[in-house]
Amino acid sequence: MNKEITLCSSKLCPWTHCVELALIESGVEYKRLEVDWNKKQTWCRPDVTSEGKLKIPTIIYGETGSHPNDPSVQYLQLTNATVIIEFIVNLTSTEPLLPATPNSLKKMHLFIETITSNFVPTWDAIVSLGNDPSNILPSIEALQALLPSDGYAVGQWSVADAIAAPFLARTIPCLKNDLVLYRESDKYARFKRYYVDLTSRDSFKQTFHEDVNAVITLSPSKL
Question: What InterPro entries does the entry give (predicted)?
Fold first, then answer.
């Protein structure tokens, strides 16, 4: 029996966006199910729910043409964006999401760590606590310092870019409005070019819902 992937998603969730980018770039076929994460989903296992509500993102991997609430079908249900992306990496062989060399792999992990431990918490504090928007500039400088002279986070497109793109796309438009220093300075030229490269890819255009994300909301706890 063939297997299929269903991505339980929300257009607002940046971590879901990371997973969807990885799916498209890997060439793995999937179905997308938009979920109201405030409603209980009775068909989900307890470990992918919180108080009966589905954690986002979640993927369901099961028999083609069946439905998650069918008790006769055994489903693999995974939540946590990094776990899901690792699962996708292991599924694909035609479009690798990881760089080929150990050195590039090390650089990729450093870039991801800078995004998740530096950039995202700083921006979340700006959004949720009203911190000064200029606090994000050192995080941008840290990312820019890791970028190669051309291309993506490690040259070729990789998992690092799947994780970076959703957060940058929810951040940079606000900086253009609020920070003259970012908007007019050449200091961030390499970072700005990276941002354009990310958001120009077909996978990004297919998965970013600008109308829904007009109000910027980040949820680092979804990682």
Answer: Glutathione-S-Trfase_C_sf, GST_Omega/HSP26, Thioredoxin-like_sf
